[in-house]
Amino acid sequence: MRRARLALSLAAALATSVTAIPTPYNYEQAPLAAVESPGFVFGHPGQRVNVSLYVMSRCPDARMCESVFEDVLKHEGILDQVDLKLEFLGDIDRHAAYGVDCMHGDVECAGDAHQLCLAAHTPLEQFYAALSCMNYGNFPGAIGTIALTRRCAETSGIDWWASGVGKCVEGKRAAMVGRYTQRLAALTGEGYEPRPKEWDTEDEDAPLEHLGKEARLRLADSVRHTKKVGVTKSCTIEIASTLKHDKTRRCVVDGGVWKGCDDGHTAADFVRVISKEWKALNPT
Ligand SMILES: *[C@@H]1O[C@H](CO)[C@@H](O)[C@H](O)[C@H]1NC(C)=O
Question: From which residue to which does the signal peptide run (predicted)?
Answer without folding.
Answer: 1-20
